[in-house]
Amino acid sequence: MPTLGPNRYGKAETRVVRVVRDGAVHHLKDLNVSVALAGEMDAVHLCGDNANVLPTDTVKNTVYAFAKEHGIDAAEEFGIRLARHFVTGQESIHRARVRIEEYAWERIGTAGSARHSFARRGQEVRTARIAYDGERWEVVSGLTGLTVLNTTDSEFRGYVKDRYTTLEETSDRVLATDVHARWRYGWSDDTRPVPDWQRAHAEARGHLLSAFAETYSRSLQQTLYQMGARVIERRPEIDEIRLSLPNKHHVLVDLEPFGLTNDNEVYVAADRPYGLIEATVLRDGAEPLIPTD
Amino acid sequence: MPTLGPNRYGKAETRVVRVVRDGAVHHLKDLNVSVALAGEMDAVHLCGDNANVLPTDTVKNTVYAFAKEHGIDAAEEFGIRLARHFVTGQESIHRARVRIEEYAWERIGTAGSARHSFARRGQEVRTARIAYDGERWEVVSGLTGLTVLNTTDSEFRGYVKDRYTTLEETSDRVLATDVHARWRYGWSDDTRPVPDWQRAHAEARGHLLSAFAETYSRSLQQTLYQMGARVIERRPEIDEIRLSLPNKHHVLVDLEPFGLTNDNEVYVAADRPYGLIEATVLRDGAEPLIPTD
Amino acid sequence: MPTLGPNRYGKAETRVVRVVRDGAVHHLKDLNVSVALAGEMDAVHLCGDNANVLPTDTVKNTVYAFAKEHGIDAAEEFGIRLARHFVTGQESIHRARVRIEEYAWERIGTAGSARHSFARRGQEVRTARIAYDGERWEVVSGLTGLTVLNTTDSEFRGYVKDRYTTLEETSDRVLATDVHARWRYGWSDDTRPVPDWQRAHAEARGHLLSAFAETYSRSLQQTLYQMGARVIERRPEIDEIRLSLPNKHHVLVDLEPFGLTNDNEVYVAADRPYGLIEATVLRDGAEPLIPTD
Amino acid sequence: MPTLGPNRYGKAETRVVRVVRDGAVHHLKDLNVSVALAGEMDAVHLCGDNANVLPTDTVKNTVYAFAKEHGIDAAEEFGIRLARHFVTGQESIHRARVRIEEYAWERIGTAGSARHSFARRGQEVRTARIAYDGERWEVVSGLTGLTVLNTTDSEFRGYVKDRYTTLEETSDRVLATDVHARWRYGWSDDTRPVPDWQRAHAEARGHLLSAFAETYSRSLQQTLYQMGARVIERRPEIDEIRLSLPNKHHVLVDLEPFGLTNDNEVYVAADRPYGLIEATVLRDGAEPLIPTD
């Protein structure tokens, strides 16, 4: 009989919105929570015996109940609470992984004193991934959908040329990417003080942006490393960061057939294909644990 | 032989990015331009005779060339220039419709004086649709992807109940929607002064937001009308506005099975189905011209 | 006070799956139903008075209840039943429009006699749009997501050249498109026999495919007209058809830099921009009623 | 200075369409190719020195040139050829990973003898992932977007109940999922005969479908294991398979408020949240190498 290998199950994409009403001033948290559980699951796979299976419907209910009972502050804290609950609450469950996407809202400014109106801030999504095996925590936070662009201070020269190379070197190009970043906190032990998740996230995000803007880039790899290194250098609570950066090519349009000169002014924003640059940057001595698929 | 009815052709989704370099301070415009042309096109449909067909590839080239030759200020102005070119430049083309999506970028703040780094502002998209038949202009501007939410001051009561009604009345619900707005300017004649497109757009957007926030809502229809009416009342250059507002249901979770009371605190953000409310609001005497499909 | 213009409301995207159990042989219908209602709706827009408003939640319930009470045969028939119910059942509702997407499933062949397993047939979606005002019916059926491609018998020559034209003529190109078709039935009167919706749809689809395949194309406009004309000529129950055909450009790759000749063998399947060709084809004397937006 | 961890770069989503013209009978292959390369890349990350970097533009060119020079038979074979080229062709590149999506087309039947017209077969995508380090091959094939549904022979009972459990047991439910399958071939060594990729894929797909249809399911985990085990048992060239199966919930609608009985006939096809069941099934003694993220 074939062997059962690594497996997990759970409820994905439970959408929970939590409102806190502080008089006329309301607060809003908007999350998408995915929980995956693993443990003694041979019987359910091999013979359909559900005796060790907490239903995924219950997982969903737990997310909503916890939103009420404990509120939602940082996504990381909410994920830790959920992961601990499943691993310590069910004997058959040995490991939990909670993934959270958080959508940001900002207040709509109005004349009166009422503060209950909000607008979604955009396409950027804050992410958190919490893993727990009953002993050790692994918290990886990050962001996706942060699109950035430099109109200059980017070149690409001195690369390998082979039989199939036609690209011309350039000393001034547009450099654009969608930042997909995940960083792992050194914290892994319940007995140690937890990081300030909100501040760490805001600061890491700021460092990514400023490193992108301030780096004179000879390649997207160099920019990537500078972005990652700045986070590692400035945030002691972060041991590892992995960046996945599509090179969103902006191609200079050839205007000569129309008797015009394109002096780095008019670009095609191309869809596909795109370069894809991925790398991990680590604190000295840290192990790379963020999955690279 | 079957008759040829209404027809048009053109190039859709030409992505153009235009950079202006003012010393170390750079400026960025990012558009998606779709052009549709109509005119004497019987021969190409009926016998494949292309003698009246300007290729869609040429339409694309024209977008890029105009970005260089004339720059891009307001999307509306750029669309007017393109529409005029096609209608006056080709005898066989009698009507042009230009649709533009504009993506907003904001500067990344950095320490130095360099000003060439940008981040995409989010999912909201500014839209413009310019139609021209050689005599009359129709300019419809708008926005999509503006997601807003009120945590209170919304009720839904006193509605019709029939055999299939199970919904309970509520006097305090979350009201959320993705604003899809299109407004038509009164301007239609080349001899009249054109509106200030940038200011009109910013102001209309602001009125939509504040009317949404400030309306005590007995139904999403009422909120919609208030939003539309405020734009018509405050912006004399706008004669008509059409709003399409999905009611993004936020369903209160039943926490009683867990011994908890949900005091308007925990909601499911539901995907489908959703209510869909659509209406046009008009200046007195104006005709509804924005298509309702 | 600004005037209320055209408006409607309803429930969009109610997803209903209907199973019929004929012993061990089961049957499956899978629809996405969107209902929009219009009528005496001034009070709800102007003052939030819901006395004429049947809740959209009730609309959803009705879809599910009708699936049980009446079953689902053709999507058109189901839509007609719903539209009639809302217009005749509520005095305040004068017009209904029902849009349906139908997803096709095919049986998974198995050894035994059981017939309860299905696989989704693909990305093609069957569409229907039923409008009713208490007297007159308008039924527009169609399809989207049918992607087709000819590897030869397509050319593009003899077109207009202006200052911005760089495209070279071609006598042998790949022609590919996603067929988006909507056809209107002549039937509009309850006293007349209704068409055989299932057969008409299958036949119209077949004619679109064969006309695409059999036309030697000098332009996509010509192919479009041939596709539409064949449906009008062969299906007497159909009076009008509108086709929207993106020209999914397949660009011949220049392999000369690598010392290779590209003899119409290797193509880039491009994303954007794309040509977009739209036209209506009509039975002689029929009016174009399908919206062109 | 922070350490550079695992990294790779390449060109993603190169869309190549290859036509073979066998007289009037044409053949079509339609791929989306993503290549990632790794090796001596410290200098480019740390100092922007591109001397070891083959441009991603060259990677794209190579895909097109190889499509001409070698044709495209099985996606796996094409990926192997590309991976070998990059690893053996550039000293600085030590590892290559090629990912391919293949889109299926079927012929449009026509009366004449011409055979150059095709329709896309649907949303199902065939996948292949080839990894090579100069010595060892790892080939993982699979599919995504295969949506299947059983209308009966599925129950869910006997599960754990805790404080947050409200789900009722069911002995007859709809079971539906989107099959996402990846299977790893035992072949890893150039000196051994390669599998028949086309036949292996077709057979594995067939086993997944028939196991899904023929399993009386007490849980989706059980169905998953049966699907995986059947592939391992019947295809000796496959050592490992990983399945990721969303439980696409079909919720029985409560029709009692309308005086109707829902005898397993009318369902809501729900979007979110969804159960997510993931597991690997292995040949005895095989190691789980397919990434689980």
From TrEMBL, chains A, B, C, D:
Pathway membership, UniProt: Purine metabolism; urate degradation; (S)-allantoin from urate: step 1/3
EC numbers for this chain: 1.7.3.3
Catalytic reaction annotation: urate + O2 + H2O = 5-hydroxyisourate + H2O2
UniProt feature coiled coil, ranges: none
The entry's keywords: Oxidoreductase, Purine metabolism
Biological role: Catalyzes the oxidation of uric acid to 5-hydroxyisourate, which is further processed to form (S)-allantoin.
Family stated for the protein in its record: Belongs to the uricase family.
Record protein name field: Uricase
